[in-house]
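Why do we care about 3D structure at all? Because function follows from shape, and shape follows, mostly, from sequence. That is the central idea of this module. The next example makes it concrete: a single protein chain, its amino acid sequence, and then its structure expressed as tokens.
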Amino acid sequence: MDPEPFYDNPAYKGADKLKGKVAIITGGDSGIGRSVAVHFAREGAEVAIVYLKNHEDAQKTKEAIKKEGKEGLAIASDVSTREGCEEAVKQTIAKFGKLDILVNHAGIQFHVDKFEDITEEELEKVYRTNVYSMVFMAQAVLPHFKRGSVIINTTSVVAHKGSKNLIAYSSSKGANRSLMHSMALNLTERGIRVNAVAPGPIWTPFIPSSFPLEKLKTFGHDTLLGRAGQPEEVAPAYVFLASDDSSYIVGETIHVNGGKSFSM
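And the structure:
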């Protein structure tokens, strides 16, 4: 990518907000997921990232975690399947002995010009990756969670505004938001807080891999800030929701979108 995304903000100073915690992050090999992993490690957490097949990206994330003084764990597993989620959790428990934080971040999107262009195969892949994974991962971690544990789902600004060309993706992000609310209603009585982060146009490998080239030049220009955001500008929202700083927040969504939700 040119320019490369910024995920490691040197101005961000850790304060042990997640010291002694163990987090598992799906889709943690690049972009926002990588930045969340780095920020969590900087705040003292042990971090496991789950990814599908981008081994080189996952290794870079693990190296970034190591720079923060944590060993990290990179797990290649397909979270669109129940078995893949259970295996990821099994490896995390084997490595760190416990789990406190789940970040459901894995996602996929397909750009289409016409509504009729949505294929059954793409629709199923989007929902299995973006929605099924959140259910399967939550079910896999719950036996290991205790009171005070946290789940954070990644939704999107398009969950609220829709998207002309990311139709399956935006509908799945709406499902993510509703799922978060339902999970919060169901799990809060167990002392497990569930919230969400809704990024807007953030410059990650997700973008050039799924957008037409002509749209990349103006990506993010329709926000109030007039630019795309960086992963390192999103990650602190996840830190906040994972830490005790947000102890009285449940069933809520933090919007990190440069004002896009107000500019259209």
